[in-house]
Amino acid sequence: MAATGNIQTQVQTQAQAQIQTLSPQQVLEARLLALSTLELEEHVRTELGDNPALEDGLANPVGQDSDDGQTDDDTQFGDEEYSVQADNRDDWSDDDDDWYDRPQQERSGVIADVPLAETRSFYDILYEQLREQDLTSRQQKIALYIIGSIDNDGMLDKDLQAISDDLAFYHDLDAPTDEIEQVLKVIQDFDPAGIGARNLQECLLIQIRRKKDSSSKDLQERVISSMFDEFTHKRWDKIAARLELSKEQTDAVIAELVRLNPRPGSSLGETVGHSRQHIVPDFLLDNYDGEIHFTLNNGNIPQLHVSREYSEMLDNQIKEGTSSQKAAAVYIKSKLDSARGFIQALRQREQTMTRTMQTIIDLQRPFFTEGDETLLKPMILKDVAEKTGYDISTISRVTSGKYVQTPFGTFPLKAFFTDGVKTKSGEEVSVKEIHRILREVTDTEDHNNPLTDEQLAEILAGRGFKIARRTVAKYRELIGIPVARMRKI
């Protein structure tokens, strides 16, 4: 019998696929766009130290006429007030190497005092403790990013995978989550206890574990680690039964637990000028003559230009033409290109940020005119992306971690993005109005008999908002209003 078998053949086919890749310049622009004003200052100074072809100060830069002090290209960024035009890089001259050498008021058109912190901030305290740690440069970078992700209450508001993704994209640092968690544990040893916790349960456990060993400490840890739900809902009887404690023992343990600080960052800020004082706004906005004016706050970012000396060195190396000079010319040219690219990225960052801010103002003009949060209209990232022509991811980078100072206070840009709710009449209003009503109703309720979520839903329905009970619960939790049984006196 003849043997038979499978015959395998290889077939070569062609397929066409469109793959989008980012150029190094686009990656640089994306990184700078994600930085706050303070972070940008630090990044610019690092770049100045790394690239000798990039200079600051009032030296005579490339493209500037030493006789009349004017640049070859008189392109200005912005008019008397921001009125952002189409994003067309062809409008900018490649020879405009001194663009960032111009004073901020010439670039923005609005002269404003730059508010900077006068006291040690919450983050300064953490940075000081970080410098005392024996960490590698890689671990230092991870730690700096973690600290920058800690919110005003001292909690880490990003999960470890998001931090890993951000480090890879913005800082070219491939750090797995387990490595990030090791660095996070170092930060969680900082003072005050509870800093850097990822949730309330972890925050309380960190504080308990700092205490001296005792039987009470062990009981507190057991309550928070295995009976956290009972603790948050004040089910003292269940806690006592599971731990087999007397009423006096239970009261003693609970008394210790309620002394723990659920917001370690805010308590520190009361003594060192934390909260809004430490925030350096990225935009400065004012209303005068019936118009809204704003400027991008460039803080203490130094003036930049491309080194004339390096440009002349490149010309001389090319003229000489020997092999050694050609090798030097390649190095010099790479530094000059890097300097020009960095200045262009800063220019693009400013244009993108101002255009986005202008669009936010246009969409939320009633709020910026009156300062009433209930006047905020429903707005999502997609709305701003469509009007600016930018990608949603770009709008997200512009608005994340950025603040605007207004006559009504300093607000994160994210505060102007809100979902919409339709009334019975079909009108769409911001959920901020729902938040306002919930605060108003719970502030004036009978605290001996607080309103349930179902009753709150009925009250909202009476005011024209038909919202499900579970949605009311979500909004209530979002603005920090406890459940009814925890509001009872």
Describe the structure in brief.
The chain is α+β, with helices and mostly antiparallel strands. The chain has helices at about 25-35, 35-50, 105-110, 120-130, 135-150, 160-170, 175-185, 200-210, 215-225, 230, 235-245, 245-255, 265-270, 310-320, 325-365, 365-370, 380-390, 390-400, 430-445, 455-460, 470-480, 485, and strands at about 55, 285-290, 290-295, 305, 405, 410, 420, 430.
Please describe the biggest sheet, giving its number of strands, its sense, and whether it closes into a barrel. 4 strands, mixed
Low-pLDDT ranges: 59-119, 269-277
**Residue share in β-strands:** 5-15%
How far apart lie the N and C ends?
93 Å
**What class do helices, strands and sheet pairing give?**
alpha+beta
Please write the string of helix (H) and strand (E) elements: HHEHHHHHHHHHHHEEEHHHHHEEEEHHHH
Shape: globular
Strand order of the largest sheet: 3-2-5-6
How confident is the prediction overall: mean pLDDT?
76
Q: Helical proportion?
A: 40-55%
Structure, described:
By secondary structure, this protein is an alpha+beta fold. The protein is built from 22 helices and eight strands. The strands form three sheets. The protein has a four-stranded mixed β-sheet with strand order 3-2-5-6, covered by helices on one side. Strands 1-4 form a two-stranded antiparallel ribbon. Strands 7-8 form a two-stranded antiparallel ribbon. Strand 2 (283-288) and strand 3 form a beta hairpin. The protein is globular and about 90 Å long. The termini are far apart. The relative contact order is 0.11. Mean pLDDT is 76; it is low at 59-119 and 269-277.
